[in-house]
Design brief:
The chain is mainly α. It contains eight helices and no strands. It has helices at 3-7, 13-28, 31-60, 65-73, 75-84, 87-104, 110-123, 142-151. The two termini are 29 Å apart.
Length: 155
């Protein structure tokens, strides 16, 4: 959580608490540690395809799609495309965890939904899009996130 994000929630303590609950949920679920694993998995994936397609290129003069993307964009963007695939699942898990944290604090989930809408508006993305301001990974669409929040059952 950055000081820039805090500015968006100066008028709503519940929305700020919702953002913090989302971040706490990442911690509760070990997402930082899992992200390290995802990075290594992505590196392995990238290295394997790059080595295989470079070998194919040397032997057949055929450039495969992975190598072609690396030649056009560089290694980092291509590596991050695979790494970024893990983000939607992790973000939805954190949203669900935030709803449970908020329920324990007797705060309505509507505040989490409002906070996500506020943050989404800042990016200028529409309701359905998964593209966002983060170059490292994609987030689920706002629509999917709001639907997931609504599906959480509090026992």
């Amino acid at each position: 959580v950055t000081s820039e994000i805090l500015k968006f929630f100066e008028d709503s303590e519940e929305e700020l608490i919702s953002v913090l609950a989302h971040e706490m949920s990442h911690g509760d679920q070990g997402h930082a540690v899992k992200n390290v694993g995802y990075i290594f998995q992505s590196l392995g994936h990238h290295f394997f395809y790059l080595l295989a397609e470079e070998t194919e290129w040397i032997l057949t003069d055929n450039i495969g799609p992975h190598l072609s993307a690396v030649l056009q964009q560089g290694n980092l963007p291509v590596f991050l495309q695979f790494y970024g695939q893990f983000a939607p699942k992790v973000e939805l898990q954190a949203d669900v965890g935030a709803v449970l944290i908020l329920a324990g604090a007797k705060i309505n989930r509507i505040h989490l939904k409002k906070a996500l809408i506020t943050l989404h508006e800042v990016t200028g993305a529409d309701l359905e899009t998964t593209e966002n301001y983060d170059s490292l990974r994609d987030y689920p669409s706002l629509k999917k996130r709001l639907e997931a929040i609504d599906r959480v059952v509090i026992k």
